[in-house]
Design goal:
This protein is an alpha/beta fold and 479 residues long. 39% of the residues lie in helices and 23% in strands. Helix 3 packs across helix 4. It catalyses: (2S)-3-sulfolactaldehyde + NAD(+) + H2O = (2S)-3-sulfolactate + NADH + 2 H(+).
Length: 479
């Protein structure tokens, strides 16, 4: 069945616009063209930024109760259109329809939490009289919106990661410009429709589609952009930091997440969690399980059960509810993953299962005996490949877990609370999940990493705080 190609418009300052040129959005499963989307120019991005800045500067701030109302209406809109949002996510990206439905539910929660946190955006009184000579001074600090936020989002969570930037920005009273991934812009445009329908004043949200090389620099470097919020690869993140200068930045740059399985672990629970954590969204997940370090005593049983669970996964049509794993985002990425696996095999790694590519599909793959110098051991593979290596004890597992320039999430399976707390103290990560894989997150928690995994923390309340400026107020009273 041929899907009718839909022509989309981008949102600039409250106006839906066509572009001078456009690009095609295709389904990675079969390369069928789904839509054409405007390919914005640098000038159009500049216009979007200037409209947002002018809107923010010239009109009174949106009252808190109005921000709450708008965000609540957006979440209601998303709830009513739940299946439509899910179909878009599954069509333009890598997720199965089941995974897409889950993402929509999370995005709804992200927007609802944003509405709740708008109510809780508060300051604090300051005891100025703690300083001798300041007995006649009283005051407080208050958080104010900072202005225009620039957001750049990736393809792997095309709705919820946009919601994680737009929701907090609006809750804080800012304007925001979103540049979504060119592979998956339709989800962001659908979310923009929800904000327009909810009555967000014109100018507070623009979704500008197009190539990063054309519009990205303008978004990052324009003086009206007060903060850049980026989720994506480390190389792009480092380039943005250099160009942004003294702007505030929030960076989530991926990971190479470890999971430790000790000999007292619940084996069935560990296998199930690691299998799901490694292969959901075809492995294209920044907190997905990539390296598993298993106690030598448990290692043979773990491998047998892990291979059995992996073989049972169904790879196929994303829209089939029985499918567990769909394609990668494009064939180029699947080829790259294949090359990384082949490099590891030539260096002495053992292929336990998988290692096959067909177009954009790459079969769920388990590697063992992977040497430390292999690229798949040191870098983020962002594909359905997981390494399982034995370790003598927790100390060795922690040492190997920390031996990469990433530190987003980790997991550990153990029933020994002392071992768990040792891992908590010594693992260099932003989050550690006990008796869960690294692939666990709720949208309210602080989310971010150490080392090359990024700068700052997302999670709705923490993003709102980052997207505001503290202002101190002090009154010098008369006697």
């Amino acid at each position: 069945m041929t899907t009718k190609v839909k022509s989309y418009k981008m949102l600039i300052g409250g106006e839906w616009r066509e572009g001078l040129s456009s690009f095609e959005v295709s389904n990675p499963q079969d390369n069928e063209v789904l839509a054409t989307v405007p390919s914005a120019t640098k000038e159009e991005m500049m216009e979007a930024i200037e409209i947002a800045d002018r809107t923010f500067q010239m009109r009174d701030p949106i009252p808190t109760h109005e921000r709450i109302r708008i965000l609540s209406k957006v979440s209601d809109y998303m709830e009513r259109d739940h299946e439509s949002f899910a179909a878009i996510i599954a069509s333009e990206g890598s997720k199965t329809i089941t995974e897409a439905r889950s993402e929509v539910s999370r995005a709804i929660q992200t927007i609802r939490i944003s509405a709740e946190e708008a109510r809780r955006l508060k300051g604090e009184t300051i005891n100025f009289d703690q300083n001798p000579g300041s007995e006649q001074r009283v005051g407080y600090y208050q958080r104010f919106p900072m202005g225009v936020v620039g957001a750049i989002t990736p393809f792997n969570d095309p709705l919820n990661l946009v919601a994680h930037k737009v929701g907090p920005a609006i809750a804080a009273g800012n304007a925001i410009i979103v540049k979504p991934a060119s592979a998956t812009p339709l989800s962001a445009l659908k979310l923009a429709e929800a904000f327009v329908e909810a009555g967000l004043p014109d100018g507070y949200l623009s979704v500008v589609t197009g190539a990063g090389r054309e519009v990205g620099d303008a978004l990052v470097t324009h003086p009206a952009i007060k903060m850049v919020s980026f989720t994506g690869g480390s190389n792009a993140g480092e380039a943005i930091i250099k160009k942004a200068g003294t702007k505030k930045v929030s960076m989530e740059l991926g990971s190479n997440s470890p999971v430790i399985v000790l000999d007292d672990a619940d084996l069935s629970k560990a296998v199930h969690a690691c299998c799901s954590g490694a292969f959901s969204a075809a492995g294209q997940n920044c907190i997905g399980v990539q390296r598993v370090f298993v106690s030598r005593a448990l290692y043979p049983d773990f491998i047998d059960r892990f291979v059995e669970a992996t073989v049972a996964l169904r790879v196929g049509d994303k829209m089939d509810e029985r499918t567990d794993i769909g394609p990668m985002i494009n064939e180029k990425e699947a080829v790259r993953v294949s090359e990384w696996v082949e490099e590891a095999l030539t260096m002495g790694a053992q292929l336990e299962v998988g290692g096959r590519r067909e177009g954009a599909y790459y079969s769920p793959t388990i590697l063992t005996q992977v040497p430390s110098g292999a690229k798949v051991m040191m870098e983020e593979i962002f594909g359905p490949v997981v390494i399982v290596n034995p370790v003598a004890d927790l100390d060795e597992a922690i040492e190997k877990s920390n031996a990469v320039n990433y530190g987003l999430h980790a997991g550990i399976f153990t029933n020994d609370i002392n071992q768990a707390f040792k891992a908590i103290r010594k693992m260099d990560v932003g989050g550690i999940m006990i008796n869960d894989s690294s692939d666990y997150r709720i949208d309210e928690m602080p989310f971010g990493g150490t080392k090359g995994s990024g700068i700052g923390r997302e999670g709705v309340r923490f993003s709102i705080e980052a997207m505001t400026e503290q202002k101190v107020v002090c009154f010098h009273l008369d006697d």
